[in-house]
Amino acid sequence: MKHVLFLRLASLALACTPILVVPRARAAEPERYAIDAVIDGAAGTVTAEVTVRVHVEEGESAVVLWLYADRLAVAPSPMEERSWRWIYPGEIDLGGVTVSEVRVDGESVAVEPVASSETEDRGRDFGGSDLRVPVSPGPSRTVELRFSMRLDVPDRFGRLGHAAGVLSLAGPWYPLVVDGDAWSFDVPHTLHARALSGEIATPVGRGQEIDVEQVGAFVPAIVAPRLSTRTVRALGHDVVVVSGGELYAPPSAETPGVAGVIDLAGIDVAGMIGEVAAQAFTTASWLSIPIPEPMTVLIVPSRTELASSAPGALLVSDHALQIFPLDVVREFHLRAIRRAIFQLLAQSISARVEAPTDRGWVDDLRSIVLLDLDEARRSSTAQRPDQLLSLFAFHPAVDQLLYAPQIAFEETYFGAIDEPDRFRDDPVRARYPLTRGRRLLECVRDVLDDEAMQRMLARIANGRRSIRSALARAGIDVETMLPLWLRYATLDVNYRLGEIRTEITASGFRHTIEVLREGDERPEPVEVEVEDSAGNHVSGYWDGVGVRGEVVIDTPGDRGSVTIDPRHRLPQSAAVSDGHPRQDDATNAPWRPPIFTAFALDVLVSEANVTGVIDLALRQRYDLEHTVALRLARTAARTGGRVVYLQGLGPKAHNNRRIGTVGGGIGFNYVQPGFGGVANLGGYAIDAQLVGSVDTRRFIYDPRDAFILSAALQITGTIREDSTFAITGRGAFHAAGIFPIGLLNTFVLAGGGGFTIGPALDADRQSIGGRYALRGFTNGELLGNGALYAVFEHRFTAVTDLGINVLWGVIAREIQLAWWVGGGVVFDTSDHRDAHGAFEAGGGLRFHYDYGGIQPGVLAIDVGVPISGYVEGNTRAPVGFYIGFDQYY
To answer: Per the count of CB atoms within 10 A, which of 167, 380, 392, 415 is most buried?
Structure first.
């Protein structure tokens, strides 16, 4: 069926007659650029003399230059404790671009910055800045601008970045002439560039000193001490992959001996790009789309764009395909690369038929259409992440991945409709945020029937008319609807169900459903589905005009459930909704599979003991308020389980958790004999517990700027091994403040304490030793009926962006060092003293890694040394040594 659809659309595309649209004349339009640059790749600096021939219309008094590179002068505003790793390899490093000695037709002029309007959703961190260059008003003519520039590229990932040994100049690195929204003018650029050391690569030339001419919006480039180039064949075309690091090439089947052994950790990036390119080229050939010869691929150090395009080049991140080598998992990355190839192929179409004003969205929309046609042709087996991963949703990382992703390139996995682009590295969205291609295509689908939609797709694919013209030909009010659609990316909306009324009719049941919209005004069709008691699914639509609407749906059976947007086609914002934005979309929410909300394994090497915890949670999808948890735990003192109900309170930490919880539960434990002393009794205990906590951490594996407070009250009945029975009460609290100093240094001040009343085994007393308190002492060494302790810890991220592949299950990312000092006191001790104090110091390592290249985790190794307070004569190791698969505090 998919092949039939593709053939029909391809036939329509090929049959459409060519209707060329000539873009209107611009007020200021560049005709040619000439750049003479000296590049210091080691320092990340570029100095250049730039000459621009600009056509100005009669009466024009200024030409505006866009300084995209000025975005480097400030840190991105959306950056937070997880995503800083996607922007900077170390601390915040700033740079920018300066323009001097500006001349117009040989005359020196004074330039001035252009202030952005307060209504523009545009910041310096995204769009850089503009300079106004005055020209003398006169007749329509061509003027010549000449200026000097200096670009300082900081240690940063992205299109303009200096990281991993590569200086990336894959965005507009020299100023471009703009006219309002238009900047992507296809004009000749003559570039003479000399590298003080290393080599330069552009789409049309490589070497230490290059002279190239390229037609496009600008000339992208990368610079490295030594460029690695590998050419692969794709459907009879050359694909040239250029990287600043060595490109892995697997040995051929005929290679003898050790040289013929395949490196299990090697990633044949060039080979896989070639395979994907062959698939895309096949579809392009069907549609008579020109294929560049050769197609140049530049590998850039990017952590926000997995694959994209620049004028004349495909851009692929050096982290692409660093993912578990399972076809269905790798398909997400390959699909992103395939889409970028179609985006590159679309450039030649847009150069013929699209106005420069529209280049910010037409290439992306056309690439989506071509991608969908390609997948229809190949009967793609790619699945949505929630379908693919639902079988594994019991794992905490996967649960987080589905409901509150914290991974790099998250739009690759979760951008099915809205395609978030928080950092807007692509210059087509840097000046102004534009709705991306997938969402635009769905907007078009909303207003066309199936047959008209097929014709629309054919017109977009064949490239014989502008997309704006194709929309108008399909009957869409382009002047009204298109500006609104392009703004959808900036509009935050939450839909929720209102009043639902059901009445009996002669043929069954009639349901009147109120739909409410909160946030911005975004008129769009909103689907509402009713499932009746007989299992029938019937949909109706609200046109989305206004803040509320009613949908009337008739069903044969009585109402079962009601759901807004059952196909998840409408982006909804977590900033507008109180809970998860889809929590209030349905009357019934399915239960998730049991979730591992906590999994920790600690090896207490110095105590020759292994402890751990597994925390399983049951909750409905998108529910942040109600959780039933089952905890199975083994500590140095007891082994057992607990059933707890937790109520979420307060603001959201993220879309999967609120910062506050209260609850209670019942626990069953076996008390370890010998804990606190070889002669101590064990027993069986049942307890009732009340708990509460506040936890503002958003990225739990390496939190920054967070506050944690937890407390518990518990009453325990214990049948001891000597058949006696005792009831004990205890309470405990733990608090921690986490304070960042820059990006690489974090300070933690943590403390806690507790009390025990009634006859108690040592397992019920308070302890200040162990991995979660004073790590220089054992869990059973410092026990009392009261306790207080405090720890001051400093963590320093020594190595970032490591990228070491450990048999594909783990890809190491960071190494963090830690040192701490701590002290505490126990009261009414187990050895009959009123009080006993202890002090310690220690250090540790944190190895941060990604499971299978996707979800973060951490391995902690801690060694604590007692300074004073250890019990004389007690058999103990000289230090506390712990290995933990979890984050401390």
So the answer is: 167
Phi-psi region of 504 (alpha: psi -120 to 50; beta: other; left: phi over 0): beta
Judge whether 768 and 643 are in contact, CB under 8 Å: no
- Residue labelled with tokens 């693919």: 388
Q: How far apart are CA 617 and CA 403, in angstroms?
A: 14
Phi, psi of 636 (to 5 degrees): -65, -20
In degrees and rounded to multiples of 5, residue 320 shows phi and psi of -65, 140
Radius of gyration over alpha carbons of the chain, in Å? Answer: 32
Contact present, 37 and 145 (Cβ < 8 Å): no
Cβ proximity of 817 and 286 under 8 Å: no
For residue 371, CA distances in Å to 390, 438, 441, 540 come to 25, 10, 12, 30
**Residue where the block lists tokens 């008319």:** 465
- C-alpha 79/C-alpha 55 separation (Å) is 39
- Give every CB contact of residue 868 below 8 A, 6+ residues apart in sequence: 837, 838, 839
Helix (H) or strand (E) holding 500: strand 493-505
Cβ-contact 79, 87 below 8 angstroms: yes
Report the SS3 class of residue 771. Answer: coil
How many other β-carbons are positioned within 10 Å of the β-carbon of residue 385?
Answer: 18
65 close to 131: Cβ distance less than 8 angstroms: yes
| Helix, strand, coil percent content, the chain, rounded in steps of 5 | 20, 45, 35
Q: 832: which residues sit within 8 A by CB, 6+ positions away?
A: none
**For the whole model, what pTM was predicted?**
0.89
Per-residue confidence (pLDDT) for residue 646, from 0 to 100: 96
Q: How many CB atoms lie within 10 A of CB 691?
A: 18
Q: Is the pLDDT of residue 238 over 60?
A: yes
